[in-house]
Design a protein that fits this description.
Largest sheet: 7 strands, mixed
Strand order of the largest sheet: 4-10-9-8-7-5-6
Number of strands: 13
CATH class of the largest domain: Alpha Beta
Structural class: alpha/beta
Oligomer: single chain
Radius of gyration: 21 Å
CATH topology of the largest domain: Aspartate Aminotransferase, domain 2
Shape: globular
Bound molecules: pyridoxal-5'-phosphate
Number of helices: 12
Strand content: 5-15%
Order of helices and strands: HEEEHHEHEEHEHEEEHHHEEHEHH
CATH superfamily of the largest domain: Type I PLP-dependent aspartate aminotransferase-like (Major domain)
Length: 424
Amino acid sequence: MDHTQDRALRHRAARVLPQGVYGHQSTALLPETYPQFFTRGEGAHIWDTDGHAYLDLMCAYGPNLLGYGDPRVNNAAIAQLQKGDTLTGPTPLMVELAELMVSMISHADWAIFCKNGTDATTMAKTVARAKTGRRIILVARGAYHGAAPWCTPAPAGILAEDRAHIHYYDYNDAESLSAAVAGAGDDLAGIFATPHKHDAFTDQALPDPDYARRARALCDQTGALLIVDDVRAGFRLTRDCSWELLGVRPDLSTWGKSFANGHPISALLGSETARDAAGSIYVTGSFWFSAMPMAAAIATLEILRDSSYLEQTIALGHRLREGLSKAAHAAGIGFRQTGPVQMPLFLFDDDPDFRRGFAWASDMLEQGIYIHPWHNMFLCAAMTDRDIDQVIEAAQTSFQAVSKRLDKIVPHPALSTLLAARSA
Ligand SMILES: *Cc1c(COP(=O)(O)O)cnc(C)c1O
């Protein structure tokens, strides 16, 4: 596979970006052959700078829910762009969007819109402290809530003081959560939980209802706020806050990634109990009132409410899981698929440094399938049965390639460094 253009861009990037592309798409974190730059996306596919098309199972790490460039969403966005986007104040779309979200999300009575998931989670933390006048925030060990100093997974530049009042518990472990609450004494402000355990590098786990109910009960007993971080799983599991599936309602929920189908907007939603506290904090941003992403969000949410996108992606997910499971079994390979079928994560048995995962992913890429060796993936509503079958067919040959490639493909040492930092 020719990567000439991508190599040239990497070379230029290395001079003007500190280590080239940063964050989740840093070269160190993915197989060497993975392209770093893309020129185009349409439906379920992305194109790299050398003209290769890939069926994209990353969906932009979540934002692509209906398909890249969905015309229903983009036409609404373009029409608004032509009228006005970033103005001195918001357009009426802000009220309309808040009304729509509040009508869809059972626990929510109000919304604050922002740009990134990190804005929303950081604001949730501040609201919990403003509401309670207390300091301690509980977070599940290894859970991702964004890239601000209080939650970013890598340690460089972060002070112990940045996390002085962040305490940790084990996800899905009601006893661990209770112990952390007891340890916080009368200083507990809030408890964060992701809808299910979707940490990188490790098997996903669905939420244990006892743990979720315990989190609610502990917040009720202590007056702390329960925060469900739905930035990644929101609208992928249900058309409501994900913990509605368990009958557990948070006080705050955080949203981002998918609800404008890739346009830049995120949100903090809250119930009546947190309204005054949310109104008391000072939060804003130069682009937080921008109208184009709000128009995109309204168009997206109406489609989510009125279409069968969810049932479709779940059906595609089952097809994929069954097909891959058969293929792995036929190849005699220990291969684990975890989490909700529409948000799958794939890991190999006996693969502590992800060598097998990298070998498999590299071979899949050569066959035009973009997967991830250690992060959960996403299915989108633009995928078809035929696309899923293509993944399964590619996997049948790629599983054979894993053992052959093992010596050639070695993950970058930076990956182990990140891994060590996370488990510390
Ligand atoms: C991605 C993510 C965030 C951060 O969102 P950004 O838009 O990247 O700032 C927060 N929480 C969860 C669960 C996420 O997956």
